[in-house]
Amino acid sequence: MNDSIINTTGTDRITLWKYDGKHVSHESFPCRTWIFASGDRYDLEFLERQLDTGNIEHQWDIEKDVYGKVEGLKIFGKPGFLNRIIQIVESIGNNRKFMIYNADINNHLRFLAENDLSYFILDDPMDFDMNIPYVSVEGRLKYGVPEKISLNGRQFMNIETGILEELSVLIRNSMMIIYDNRDRFFSKILMLMRNMGIGVPSFYSSGNTTYESYGVMHSKSANVRIPGKLCIPMDSFILQEAGIEGLIETSRMSCLSPERAAVMTSGSAVSSMEETFALKQNIMIPYYKNDHEYEKNLETLLSTDMGGLVLQPEPGIYSDVHEIDFSSMYPSIMVNYNISPETINFHHGRPVDGTPYRISEERGFLPSALDMLLKRRLFYKSVKHLSPVYEKRDKALKWMLLTSFGYTGYKNAKFGKIEAHEAITATGRYVLKKSIDICRDMGFTIIHGIVDSLWIQGKGSIDELLERISRETSIGIVEEGHYRWIVFVPAKNGEGSLNRYFGLKHDGTYKIRGIEIRRRDSPNICRNFQREALDMLSGCRTPEEIRGKYDQVEKLKKRYLSMPSYISTDDYMIGFHMQKRHGEYASMTIRKSLGETLEKRGLEIYPGETRMAIVSDEKRKTLSLPGDEAKPDMRYYRKLLLRSFEPIDFIFSSLNLSPSAQRKLTEYQ
Amino acid sequence: MGRTTPSLRQSFDLMLEDINRIKGMISDNELEEMQKLVSYGRKHAPELQFLPRDDALFTILFMLVEMRREILLFEGKNE
Question: Of A302, A425, A433, which has the smallest distance from its Cβ to B5's Cβ?
Fold first, then answer.
């Protein structure tokens, strides 16, 4: 295997870190780059004269962007000087006269793309990556002071000099450091090591960041950087979802170093991948996007600005149900239906169902860029059973593909356009509707449908059905699960809840969504109840067999309601997710109280963070933190338990039990 | 990202909120009936997505369908 590029550093000289499986070598290259300015000929000539005066190298040239050829001035400079050049061009053009290209691309990404390089290149997609030595460091603080530490999974209850010396050696011998910096744990450990005179490299630490995504606050702990090492935060989304192998795959596909790929969202990784593809195809990337939303009347806006199709299930228990699922539906639509910002128009090409848009025949930029990613994902999906490495790569690619669609509607996406976003969702709705028609035509009954999945019942051939849907919609569809029985739980208003269901598959496993067992904000006591109840039902092949488990489940409910003393206090812990700073809560809520409790103990909590606590007194909003002597508020936990009984009770209530059994079901409520 | 207009389900939810504003001005019974009618329409939000945007008429048709279904169910003629 050849040397792998595992990192890049530098600005005007780019240093490649090459790893041969044992050692890291560094190779430096001078880097010179360019930006492009287009606009009115008269304005460009004026800009040319100014650049001549300032002795800035430039030339007239014709390049292309996604829409076609562009004539203008190519302006050269070192990466470190590029921002200054952009400022000069913008000020000469009064921030509006010139369209600037290739101005804000990550320097390292551009260097790698233009030289046809990438991180962690594999000769064959089946190859495994080289083993990168790493150390993982995590731990816990008490009253703001590091208390416990875990090195590569080995737990130490006290932090002693010997352990820190061992950590120092591990850091020195490792290439990658995976650290937990919640409450600045790792920063404090490094500071402690420095103060104790234990050999520790220099390090830099940033501050915590908080951001909002789809209305939910998220928090990222402070990043730590140690020169010469790859420092990966443990709360990195992609690391948590797809492990080191998934992180490396993201880095490979996006041309972002593992350190950057770890802290960026999957959407940014896709954006970087598109930029890399554009650079390799000599397509310029606009600095400011100039393709505004088309003017449209209110009727068009309302009829096109819709999301995916979500059906309304009838609450109940259903037997012998198939779940069929389109593989990467939206990316497949983009690729197979050629949806891209430059292919959308009102005048020529194939019409998009449910919209006034049309798609031109010429192959679009986004479908071309995503085609390779989609094929790669489908490949790893087909081989993921062979190795966990392929499974993790599949997961990483799945996330990249998922976000590739969302980015078409993001206002700052370089290759996004709201009409493309609308055309994708509209096609998605029609693809699902067409699939529903085919299912009905082949004798299946539709129970539920969510965007790219359908739950159907029927005796027809599922293989023939999948083949026909795939053929007629041009999108791959697979059977995700075959259920012995599945329960769609009602919402509070009695209608079927769209995303709360659980079902037992023929292979004996459950698929569970939306009920307490899956929720981060429910205590273990509720989850354990549902887990035990579902275990009891796992032997039932039909809904009728469930009826026989009624007494057993009732006993279980009684046992949990008595809250026996052998239940560990840890099982009462609830994860509270902070949506804002505790001072910003107007009334005294449990979350506000949690923030105040943590503050008193010298710990900070940021919006987006989740902290565990036990509710000791709901009325007075008293909480106990992990490690405290805790006495749970039994009335509060009884309420939560009763709520967790509801999905299980619902099964029995829909099985037409005897009136006395029905009465029993409601007697706790 | 993406959407700027509320979905049909959200529109029905807004309608339910609006109905709650006149709570007290109408009887509880009427309030409940109105909520029930809106929820009949809400139930058919997925189908309404495929119909012309002037969907008030179709919403009423779906409400009538649901009412008819309930009557038939009550009479024991259906399902």
Answer: A302
A540 vs A642: CA distance, rounded Å:
24
Q: Is there a single domain that holds both residue A498 and residue A582?
A: no
Cβ A301–B5 below 8 Å, yes or no?
yes
What is the DSSP pairing of strand A316-326 with strand A477-490?
Answer: antiparallel
Whether residue B15 is contained in a domain is answered as yes
pLDDT averaged over every residue in chain A: 90
- For the stretch A384-400, pLDDT in tens is 999 999 999 999 999 99
- Is B69 a domain residue? yes
What local confidence, expressed as pLDDT, does residue A409 receive? 80
Residue of B nearest to A403 (CA): B1
ipTM of the complex: 0.83
Chain B CB contacts of A305 under 8 Å are 3-5
| Residue ranges of E strands in A257-402 | 316-326, 344-345, 350-351, 358-359
Distance from CA of B7 to the nearest CA of A (A): 7
Q: What is the pTM of this model?
A: 0.87
Instruction: Tell me the chain A residues in contact with residue B42 when contact means C-beta distances shorter than 8 Å.
Output: 312, 495
Look at B50 and A354 and tell me if their CB atoms are within 8 Å. Answer: yes
More confident residue, A658 or A621: A621
pLDDT band at B53 (very low <50, low <70, confident <90, very high): low
- Please, which residues have CB within 8 angstroms of residue A506's CB and are 6 or more apart in sequence? A482, A483, A484
Q: Scanning the structure block, which residue is given the tokens 């090409």?
A: A349
Of residues B52 and A590, the one with the higher pLDDT is: A590
Q: Identify the pLDDT of residue A118.
A: 92
Residue pLDDT, tens place only, A164-216: 999 999 999 999 999 998 888 999 999 999 888 887 778 888 877 787 776 77
Instruction: Report helix angle B28-43 to B56-75, nearest 10.
Output: 110
Query: Residue A496 falls within a domain, yes or no?
Result: yes
Contacts of A493 (CB under 8 A, 6+ apart): B39
Is residue A133's pLDDT more than 60? yes
Kindly state whether residues A590 and A499 are assigned to the same domain: no
My answer on whether A493 and A553 are in the same domain is no
Which residue, A17, A20, A26, A16, is CA-closest to A2?
A20
Minimal-distance CA residue of chain A relative to B55: A303
What's the gap in Å between the CA of A325 and the closest CA on chain B? 18
Which domain does A425 fall in, by range? 303-386+406-509
Query: In A231-342, which residue ranges form alpha helices assigned H by DSSP?
Result: 237-254, 258-263, 266-280, 298-304, 329-336
